[in-house]
Write a structure and sequence with these properties.
The chain is 76% helix and 0% strand. It is built from 9 helices and no strands. The longest helix is centred in the middle third of the chain and has 30 residues.
Length: 182
Amino acid sequence: MIKFLIYIEFFKTGLFAVGGGLATLPFLYDIAERRGWFAAEQIPDLLAVAQLIPGAIGINLGAYAAAFAHPAGLVLAPLGMATPQIITILLVSKILGKYKESCTAQAVFAGLKPAACGLLAAAGFLVCRKALFNIDARSVLQFFRPRECAIFIIILAAVMTLKKHPAFYIALAAAAGIALKL
């Protein structure tokens, strides 16, 4: 039964996570809360691992998260997430050719763009909240995680100014985490 539930949960994630891999994060937080297969606090770590491994971030993230529920989750979650996308691609390719000039079709895509941005922004907020802030802080001074915030600012500035491969920034952040004993 757990294997079927893993497939269904990640099928729903794949069906509604419009906007790329990071759009799966709100769904993972929901699965963590409802199913208890993994802790919400683990998601930023899972995201870091998913970004290190080649492949689609959302698929990798789902596979690693589902593996906590059952080892078969490594296969079932990616299959579940990919199934609706395969079906959608097949349907859209048939329909889009006929209706690509349609005002309704253009309106649908115009509406999906801000929805994807909203999902990505929510995912970014959830990751930042866990990684940079101490929600259980007793005082304002304890609210910020200063070393993590410093790494965030340095990496953000480096990404905006340097044109390096993403692995460079991940390695830089990993080295900073080791150096700062995070």
